[in-house]
Write a structure and sequence with these properties.
The protein is of the alpha+beta class. Helices cover about 45% and strands about 15% of the residues. It has 26 helices and 20 strands. It has a six-stranded antiparallel sheet with strand order 15-20-16-17-18-19, with helices on both faces. It has a four-stranded antiparallel sheet with strand order 8-9-11-10.
């Protein structure tokens, strides 16, 4: 047992100790044989732990796996602990309800899965081995695909978007937008452009008034500090409701990038499963969101766009017409989009510097020295010489006239000294017109007024003829938090598309079959052992002992007493279900109670799964009853 960690052994013992008495002793008798009374339960658990820690037992257990086992195990490996109801709900589109219930019960009988407070988890002793058999395919498709080079909402797209908003003063889609983004399909571009405008307005990155849209450049810089992947995390999680929306999107994108593509059924399975894992409210709009931002494209099946990890950008090429072009992705902090207007975003990105674009940059507090330093650092030697001279002349002309939108503060020398030397005042000063006259910020008037009052000054009302109404600057409280959260996340490692080892159903051990045939057993004991052998829970000769664990497994036809006995055995037990065959339907039920009419006719009160609708069924009308054992607790 040296290769099994002590933690795994303790976890196995803890889980098994929580089982009901019926379930526990059924498993113990199956794997340990007849139990000599009196017995000590912790000792039995230790023996089971020792048995499933032996390499020979591990290999025999793994050799019995088949393709449906692999699907169910892969489901739990991908989406975490699940209830039986969640497993059947997620896989109901591909497998019958009854078949899934029987197989989940069988996996628990084989101790591959254990119950932890009603949720299925891997046997801690086998988990490391079982994960080698888990994969994304065939859970989400039949074959591995590669991601495709399709346009999506990247940071480069966002830079171009900001540039166009600054140029046009609006963020509405028009047909002229298409010429700037030639690789984007028109309808997809319109949808993405409008969704981005709405989101950025909501977050306060774009400010709209009656005349035009303006940008909060600090917030644009914060958004552009993200990678393409992190930006998509932010956008896709914007409308999600739940406890961990961004972690949900991170897992979703990671798996999609591994898969490369899938059909609609698989995509819905993936989204629903991750909603369960991360406690997100599922809505059909999630699929639309993936399409809107360009993560998925529908072409027979859903194709996944390859999200770029490229961060290197070529040097800037500056043409004589003041067009600047480059390839690759701009790094965080790049300022080209702030003083140049986007021409085209293709494999080669092109921006054009105009007088209007530069004046707009100056108005937004980006000065000439910053632009000059940027051009010199990012372009070939002397390529920027002519351009920087023109920009220098433009900057000089720009500084000849300065118009401030502020409040004039006229004061005495003592107060002037406070403005010059007190940081809490000087940070609100836009300009000094004379030693005692200053231009103060209008939008922070309340703040600097209070500082003056705290300094002992008497501050009267603002003297004005036409008072201008100032719109309060709105800050979205969670944008900074969301950007910070997105910046910490990286694509996670998922299950491989294919298991490390091929999953093939091994033939049953003929030596065990022969041992059962030769053993001195009663008819009931032999039938019970053969059933457990076919169910792949007889793996060792030591398990072939004369005992009956399931007195009756199925009864039908004219065996009325057998059917009554089976209903009686299952009534009131949560770890046993009944599969009922009626003339016109098949039901899986939880037997609640068996009652008799005055005429001695047996009536089964049962909850029909998965709806749990309660029905009263005459046992005589049931064509076949089959016991299905489960282990919920």
């Amino acid at each position: 047992m040296g290769h099994v960690s002590e933690r795994a052994q303790e976890a196995f013992k803890t889980l098994l100790s929580r089982y009901s008495e019926d379930t526990y002793f059924y498993l113990a008798r199956n794997y340990l044989g007849k139990l000599q009374s009196p017995f000590h339960k912790p000792q039995l658990t230790a023996r089971l732990c020792q048995l499933f820690s032996q390499e020979s037992m591990v290999q025999k257990t793994l050799s019995m796996l088949d393709s449906l086992d692999q699907v169910i195990l892969s489901l739990i490996a991908t989406f975490g602990p699940l209830t039986v109801e969640q497993v059947t709900s997620l896989l109901k589109g591909s497998f019958s309800y009854g078949n899934l219930l029987r197989r989940v019960g069988n996996l628990q009988e084989r101790l591959l899965l254990l119950s932890d407070a009603g949720k299925l988890v891997f046997n801690p002793l086998l988990e490391e081995h079982l994960l080698q058999y888990c994969s994304l395919i065939p859970l989400f498709g039949e074959k591995e695909q590669s991601c495709v080079e399709k346009p999506y909402c990247s940071t480069e797209f966002l830079r171009g978007f900001f540039s166009l908003v600054a140029k046009e003063g609006k963020c509405l889609f028009n047909e002229g937008i298409c010429q700037h983004f030639p690789t984007y399909e028109r309808d997809r571009l319109k949808e993405m452009y409008e969704a981005l405008g709405d989101f950025l307005t909501e977050m306060g990155v774009i400010r709209r008034d009656a005349r035009r849209c303006t940008l909060d450049w600090q917030k644009t810089e914060a958004l552009l500090s993200l990678s393409d992947y992190q930006l998509l995390l932010l956008l896709l999680s914007r409308n999600l409701e739940g406890t961990a929306p961004m972690e949900f999107v991170n897992a979703l994108l990671s798996i999609l990038q591994t898969l490369g593509g899938c059909d609609t059924t698989s995509l819905k399975l993936l989204i629903k499963g991750l909603c369960i894992r991360y406690q997100i409210t599922y809505t059909a709009s999630l699929l639309n969101e993936l399409s809107t931002w360009g993560v998925l494209t529908l072409d027979e099946n859903w194709q996944v766009s390859a999200i770029s990890n490229e961060s290197q950008r070529t040097g800037l090429l500056i043409d004589s017409d003041q067009t600047i072009s480059y390839q690759g992705n701009s790094p965080a902090g790049d300022i080209l989009y702030r003083f140049a207007y986007l021409e085209v975003l293709d494999h080669q990105r092109k921006y054009h510097i105009t007088k209007e674009s530069v004046l707009g940059a100056f108005d937004a507090s980006l000065d000439y020295p910053q632009i000059k330093e940027y051009l010199q650092a990012n372009s070939a030697r002397r390529m920027d010489t002519s351009l920087t001279k023109q920009l220098e002349m433009l900057s000089e002309r720009y500084q000849n006239v300065t118009i401030y939108d502020g409040l004039v503060l006229s004061c005495d020398e003592r107060t002037a000294n406070l403005v010059h030397n007190l940081p809490s005042l000087s940070e609100h000063c836009l300009a000094t017109l004379s030693p005692t006259i200053f231009i103060m910020r209008r939008d922070s008037e309340d703040t600097w007024r209070q500082v003056l009052k705290n300094a002992g000054q008497l501050v009267g009302a603002t003297k004005s003829f036409d008072r201008i109404e100032i719109m309060e600057k709105k800050e979205h409280p969670i944008l900074r938090e969301r950007i910070g959260k997105a910046a910490t996340l990286r694509q996670i490692t998922t299950l491989p598309c294919h298991p490390r080892k091929p999953v093939e159903k091994a033939p049953l051990d003929e030596s065990l079959r022969q041992a059962i045939a030769k053993a001195d057993l009663s008819k009931a004991e032999r039938e019970d052992l053969e059933h457990r052998f076919q169910s792949r829970i007889i793996l060792l000769p030591s398990q072939i002992v004369p005992q009956v664990l399931n007195p009756i497994l199925e009864a039908g036809g004219f065996d009325y007493q057998g059917k009554v006995s089976l209903c009686k055995q299952a009534a009131g037990k949560k770890d046993i279900l009944l599969e009922l065959q009626l003339p016109d339907q098949e039901l899986i039920v939880q037997a609640l109670e068996l009652a008799f009419t005055p005429q001695k006719e047996a009536l089964l009160k049962a909850a029909v799964m998965p709806s749990m609708e309660v029905k009263i069924l005459p046992v005589s009308k049931l064509f076949l009853i089959r016991l299905v054992r489960f282990h919920f607790t």
